[in-house]
Structure formats: structure tokens, C-alpha cells
């Protein structure tokens, strides 16, 4: 059953019955990371975009573990050139993974490496594994097509940036919850650095006042069991 562990910033580890998915593993340079890159386990590494706080340690972890980096065509090719095993895809496409599948969607953001290589558009993902559907928004502004993602998937969990400055902030993230309609929302991309310092409890209060979604604020290192969230009942009354 999927167990979602927050590793700090936008990094998550999802332990599924058929392997572990790591998302945006920015660990060694991350003051909030709960683990070091050398201790990360992965079979698949989903990377939303090439900014250093997302691509992070993906390449070194992929080389050490043999995990496959999954991302857009441009990002995957960049990682392959650095010696990682990759699977490339693009928006609207669904990729088969050992533990399930991932569908790639756009994010309203850019994507360039720390050394200035532009790698196209930033992405977000819906990961389906063990019957659970999990959306990781990457870095993004609010965009109306989140409604389409919410229509297509009965999301169990959405991981949304709330820190503002580089991404949507709390108020726009609440609007995103209204379009995505997940059973649970987990905030991310906040309070790692001074410009994105916000209070996640304020987000939780607004989400739970204005929507039927539950907000689970995870501290780095804390986990959430995704199976058994029981989204069906929730959505019938929504
Ligand atoms: Ni970014
Ligand atoms: Mn970022």
C-alpha cells in the first residue's frame, strides 16, 4: 500500500507494493531535508523540472540505486547525458512504471538547470499505484486546467506548493484544491527559505473551512498511509 513520506521542500518518497517512487529529491542542499541523498531508496524518480530544488540529487541517486528518472523529453535527455537511466514522456502521456503509472501534465513554471541549461516546460504528475491516485503539482501558478485533472482522477492526495513568491501561495492553493478536489491535500514548497516562509496551519484552516478536503501538514520525515483514505464516500457528497 502506498505510504507517502515527506522529505522536506517538494521531496516525497512513496513506498508502493512494487517499489519506491521518489519525487523531486532535493536533499543534500535542503536545510529541511529529513534524509541525505546517500540514504535515499528509489526504483523510480519523478522529476517535475530542472530547478536545483527539484532535480536536486536525482542524478546521483539514480546512478547509485539504478532507479529510472522519469520526466519530460528534455529533462530526461539531460539526465541520460549525465549517466542516469531515464524514461522520457510528455504532457498528456501516461507512462507505465513497475509500481503503476504516471501521467504527465503541465505546470505553469519554467525549467532550467543550475548551470543554465533550459529544459522546456515544467511538469506535474498524477501517479497511480496500488489503487491510489496522487497528484504532485511541482512548482506552479494556479491554472484553470487543474479542473480537468480533478475531473479525470478521483484524487486521494494532492501535493501542492503554498509558499508563494515562486509558485502559488496559500490563497491560490486553496482555489487549486477546489478544482482538484482531492480527499487529502499535503502542502509543500514553503518555509525552506525566507521568501517562501508561510504558516501551513493558515492553509489548513482555509482548506477545511472552504472545501471538503482534509489538509494534512506533514513535517519532514512524517508519513501518511494513502490506502484506505476512502475517497468515494467523500466525493459523493461533494
Ligand atoms: Ni522551480
Ligand atoms: Mn522550486
Description:
The protein is an alpha/beta fold. It has a single domain (3-237), classed as Metallo-beta-lactamase, Chain A. It has helices spanning 52-55, 58-65, 73-81, 146-152, 170-180, 200-210, 231-237; strands at 3-8, 11-16, 19-23, 44-46, 68-72, 85-89, 94-97, 100-112, 118-129, 132-136, 157-161, 184-188, 214-215, 223-225. A seven-stranded mixed beta sheet has the order 6-5-4-3-2-1-14, covered by helices on one side. Strands 7-8-9-10-11-12-13 form a seven-stranded mixed beta sheet. Strand 12 (184-188), helix 6 (200-210) and strand 13 (214-215) form a beta-alpha-beta unit. The longest helix has 11 residues, at 170-180. The radius of gyration is 16 Å and the shape is globular. It starts with a strand and ends with a helix. Manganese (II) ion (MN) binds at residues 51, 53-54, 139, 166, 189. Manganese (II) ion binds at residues 51, 53-54, 139, 166, 189.
Amino acid at each position: 500500500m502506498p505510504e507517502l513520506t515527506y522529505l522536506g521542500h517538494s521531496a516525497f518518497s512513496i513506498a508502493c507494493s512494487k517499489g519506491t517512487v521518489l519525487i523531486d529529491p532535493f536533499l543534500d542542499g535542503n536545510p529541511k531535508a529529513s534524509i541525505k541523498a546517500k540514504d535515499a531508496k528509489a526504483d523510480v524518480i519523478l522529476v517535475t523540472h530542472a530547478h536545483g530544488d527539484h532535480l536536486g540529487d536525482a542524478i546521483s541517486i539514480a546512478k547509485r540505486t539504478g532507479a529510472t528518472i522519469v520526466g519530460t523529453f528534455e529533462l530526461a535527455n539531460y539526465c541520460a547525458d549525465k549517466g542516469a537511466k531515464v524514461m522520457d514522456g510528455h504532457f498528456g502521456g501516461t507512462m507505465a512504471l513497475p509500481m503503476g503509472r504516471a501521467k504527465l501534465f503541465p505546470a505553469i513554471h519554467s525549467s532550467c538547470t543550475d548551470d543554465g541549461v533550459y529544459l522546456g516546460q515544467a511538469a506535474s504528475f498524477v501517479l497511480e499505484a496500488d489503487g491510489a491516485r496522487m497528484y504532485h503539482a511541482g512548482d506552479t501558478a494556479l491554472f484553470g486546467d487543474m479542473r480537468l485533472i480533478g475531473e479525470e482522477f478521483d484524487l486521494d492526495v494532492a501535493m501542492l506548493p503554498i509558499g508563494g513568491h515562486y509558485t502559488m501561495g496559500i490563497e491560490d492553493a486553496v482555489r487549486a484544491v477546489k478544482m482538484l478536489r482531492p480527499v487529502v491535500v499535503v502542502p509543500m514548497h514553503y518555509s525552506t527559505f525566507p521568501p517562501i516562509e508561510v504558516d501551513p496551519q493558515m492553509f489548513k484552516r482555509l482548506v477545511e473551512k472552504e472545501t471538503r478536503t482534509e489538509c494534512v501538514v506533514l513535517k519532514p520525515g512524517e508519513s501518511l498511509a494513502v490506502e484506505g483514505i476512502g475517497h468515494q464516500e467523500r466525493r459523493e457528497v461533494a
